[in-house]
Amino acid sequence: MDEFSFAYNETEGCYELHNSSNEPVAKLKGIANTEGITVDSANKVITITKANLDGKDVTLTGDGYNLALANDVPKAEATVEPTMITNEDATDGIFTISKDGVYQFAANFTGTVKLGAEAKNVKLLGAGKQLSNVYIDASAVTNANLWIEDLSITSNAKKSVILFGTGTANYLTVEGTNSLVNTASYEDYDQALINVGSGLNILGGGTLMASMPGDNSYGAIIGSDGYEDRSGSTINIGGSVTVNATTNDSGAGIGSGDGASIGAISIGGTAQVTASSNYGEGIGEGLGGNAGAVTYGTGTTVANNGTTITDKTDVVTADGLTAQSNPGDAATTSWELDNEKNPPVATYSKLVKTGGYTLNNSATEISYIKADYDQFTLSGVKSTDGITVKDGVVTITADNLDGKDVTLTGDGYNLAL
Predict the structure, then answer these.
(1) Please, what's the b/e burial string for 211-232 (b: 16 or more CB within 10 A of its CB; e: otherwise)?
(2) 151 pLDDT exceeds 90?
(3) Which of 153, 319, 350, 407 could disulfide-pair with 389, CB 3.0 to 4.6 Å?
(4) What is the number of other CB atoms lying within 10 angstroms of the CB of residue 187?
(5) Strand order in 111-115's β-sheet?
(6) Which strands form 170-175's sheet, in the order they lie side by side?
(7) For 163-169, what is the mean pLDDT?
């Protein structure tokens, strides 16, 4: 097996990856340190962790090497016994998790599992049976990273079964078969079944069946409470996860609650999603509510209130900002993030977005760039190849023209040829 080491290049301001012959084979720029970085020499994948990030764009250069970002989630190894969640260790019906780790519900547990502010990476294992009146409160955590596996819960209180808090990089990774149901039929039951907080990314390769069959349930299944303003909260669903979200009342299956708002919704990877609402949209707006743009990746299978989605797009980038191409017009020199692998791996294909990051469409380097979606809308072009965005100026080329008027809308942006 090849051995690798890192050396800092002061002249170029980057870390060099050296092979066993002490030859530099790749360069990493924009990281704070190299602790915990792993190298898969067979597949040429360099995996960094969140602890390596330094608030800058991270760039990898090197022939054939790809960059991956670890999900930093604890795994339930056979040699590690999970910590049991029991009634005996709860106080006034609340079991508090104060640190990262793997936890498993006792078969008779009932009450609330509350994640402390430092419990950012938590995996919850089911009890092997259906649990009653169990609630998971991650609202105290900024950017919670929560895994659920084979978890079955049926509840009937006026509260969310899973509640996320602040931070736009909350994660819910779904493994195994999971069922979350709230049967509450109280008057003015406003809570979402899964409240996404300031934003939620749902990944994994498992199945999540989520429903509210009762009347008077005004929250979304996955999204915002009834009458709650979450217009800045995005929902991203990806990987190979299967999600079924059904409500019998007026919140959206995935989106905003009754009279509420939610931000943009994207479904990508090879996710299979079925969502329905009796009075709202399956994916998008609850009754009288608002939702941001809804996009579907070309690899997805989606049904919205019984209608199969066929209008799908790929997301492409220009200088780290996003624009939508028409189906079939995706850039040919770009990268795709494979969320089916753990950690996700970037491969040469076409570009997608995930977890608030966009991969730069370059054949020689991959950059993790924090992107703000829906910055501007550009119409009348046939492709986005070669378009650049810098200092508020969107510059197109003659190759982008399609014989139509080209219009640019977006606060503070100007168009140049």
Answers:
(1) bbebebbbbbbbbbbbbbebbe
(2) yes
(3) 319
(4) 7
(5) 94-97, 111-115, 134-138, 162-164, 194-195, 222-223, 254-255, 283-284
(6) 83-85, 101-105, 121-125, 145-149, 170-175, 199-204, 234-237, 265-267, 294-296
(7) 90
Whole-number pLDDT of residue 196: 97
Tokens 């995930």 belong to residue: 354
What is the DSSP pairing of strand 45-48 with strand 38-40? Answer: antiparallel
| Nearest Cα residue to 137 out of 73, 197, 183 | 197
CA dihedral sign of residues 363, 168, 330, 272: positive
DSSP per-residue letters across 193-243 = SEE-TTEEEEEESSEEEEEE-SSSB-S-SEE--TT-EETT-EEEE-TT-EE
Q: State the average pLDDT over residues 145-167.
A: 94
C-alpha distances (whole Å) from 252 to each of 170, 194, 238, 263, 280 are 20, 12, 19, 13, 5
Residues 314 and 325 sit within 8 Å (Cβ to Cβ): yes
The answer to whether the beta carbons of residues 217 and 245 sit under 8 Å apart is no
Sign of the alpha-carbon torsion through 311, 317, 321, 325:
negative
Among residues 206, 225, 352, 353, which one has the least CA distance to residue 271?
206
Q: Which residue has the higher pLDDT, 385 or 154?
A: 154
* Whole-number Cα distances in Å, 85 to 74, 293, 377: 17, 39, 49
Give the closest residue to 52 by CA, choosing from 25, 22, 26, 72.
72
CA distance 372 to 357: 9
Q: Which of 217-221, 247-251, 253-257, 351-355 is least confident?
A: 351-355
At 75, the amino acid letter reads K
Tokens 């390596």, residue? 52
Q: Let me know: does 333 contact 365? Beta carbons within 8 Å.
A: no
| Segments of 12-130 assigned E as strands | 14-18, 24-29, 38-40, 45-48, 58-61, 66-69, 83-85, 94-97, 101-105, 111-115, 121-125
- Letter for the amino acid at 51? A
End-to-end CA distance of the chain: 51
Contacts of range 97-102, beta carbons closer than 8 Å, 24 or more positions apart:
97/122, 100/74, 101/74, 102/74, 102/75, 102/76
- The span from the CA of 73 to the CA of 3, in Å, is 25
Token pair recorded at residue 197: 């907080």
Q: C-alpha 299: how far from its chain's center?
A: 16
User: What pTM was computed for the model?
Assistant: 0.62
pLDDT band at 332 (very low <50, low <70, confident <90, very high): very low
Residue 248 has pLDDT above 90, yes or no: yes
